[in-house]
Amino acid sequence: MAGALVLVLAFVPDIPYVLLRHGLLVPITLAILADLARGQGLIARGLTWRGFERVSEASFGLFALQMPAGVWFAIAALRSAQGRRFSSSG
Question: What is the pTM of this model?
């Protein structure tokens, strides 16, 4: 069933957004959640891959650096914007 819905989504050009969001994607979402709950399917196998475990452990460090990097970028952007003074020579 999920395969049929994927084919419909891939090859039908004009699907209304409301139908897509509230009609066609609900069965796909339910099928994915049911497969994850049973531990079957490609997504469940991908999530149990050992390399994915390593990537997920590294992601917290990147998340923790997000705020200091954003603050540093904002300060650098403000300093560079304040350093540029335009003079009008007339």
Answer: 0.41
